[in-house]
């Protein structure tokens, strides 16, 4: 909560090595409900740190950070998807962030695959005669929009 309000707090956390600790934590959590809450808070803290350009650069330069964030976006089905998406958009808003993703063609390919998968599911829903739950449909459309925006940021840089 403090990272959402104070730049000084964010700088102190980064100086104490919080980015590496949070990235390790993200990699070690399971898919249990309590761990998913921890994951969401870890991603939110990274997102808050990334609001400041100099701290965003530290995050991007941290070993494996971009890959970890992309993989969380790909595997997360809950609210963490949107937090990871917002964080990845911030990363892709900088030249160094885009370069970090472009260094790994596999990550870019997986992001393209995510967009294609969401589009395919949307087409399937339209063809299916039974109307899907409105919340599920809106959620899927929002996921598609987020993923497409990230790919657009990467390819237009």
- Please give the share of residues in helix: over 70%
Corresponding CATH superfamily: Leucine-rich Repeat Variant
Assigned CATH class: Mainly Alpha
Main sheet specs: none
What is the helix/strand order? HHHHHHHHH
Low-confidence stretches: none
The average pLDDT is 89
Distinct helical segment count: 9
Instruction: Examine the coordinates and then state which fold CATH places here, giving the name of the CATH topology.
Output: Leucine-rich Repeat Variant
Globular, elongated, flat, extended or rod-shaped: what is the shape? globular
Overall domain count: 1
- C-alpha-based Rg, rounded: 16 Å
The fraction of residues assigned to DSSP E strands is under 5%
Supply the CATH architecture.
Alpha Horseshoe
**End-to-end distance:** 33 Å
- Classify the secondary structure makeup into a structural class: mainly alpha
Number of β-strand runs: 0
InterPro entries: ARM-like, ARM-type_fold, Armadillo, ASPM
Pfam family, one: Arm
GO molecular function, one term: calmodulin binding
Subcellular location: Cytoplasm
What does this protein look like?
Its main location: cytoplasm. ARM repeats lie at residues 17-64. It is found in: Cytoplasm. With 157 residues, the protein is mainly alpha-helical. The protein has one domain (2-156): Leucine-rich Repeat Variant (Alpha Horseshoe). It contains 9 helices and no strands. It has helices at 7-15, 18-28, 33-49, 53-61, 65-75, 79-92, 95-102, 105-127, 134-156. α5 (65-75) runs parallel beside α8 (105-127). The longest helix is centred in the last third of the chain and has 23 residues, at 105-127. The chain is globular, with a radius of gyration of 16 Å. The mean pLDDT is 89.
């Amino acid at each position: 909560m403090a990272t959402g309000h104070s730049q000084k707090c964010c700088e102190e956390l980064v100086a104490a090595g919080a980015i590496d600790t949070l990235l390790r934590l993200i990699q070690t959590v399971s898919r249990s409900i309590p761990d998913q809450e921890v994951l969401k808070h870890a991603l939110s803290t990274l997102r808050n740190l990334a609001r400041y350009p100099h701290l965003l650069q530290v995050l991007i330069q941290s070993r494996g950070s971009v890959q970890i964030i992309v993989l969380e976006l790909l595997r997360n089905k809950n609210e963490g998807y949107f937090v990871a998406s917002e964080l990845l958009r911030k990363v892709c808003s900088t030249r160094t962030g885009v370069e970090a993703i472009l260094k790994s063609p596999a990550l870019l390919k997986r992001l393209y695959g995510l967009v294609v998968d969401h589009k395919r599911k949307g087409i399937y829903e339209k063809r299916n005669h039974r109307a899907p739950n409105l919340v599920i449909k809106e959620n899927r459309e929002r996921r598609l929009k987020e993923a497409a925006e990230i790919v657009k940021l990467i390819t237009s840089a």
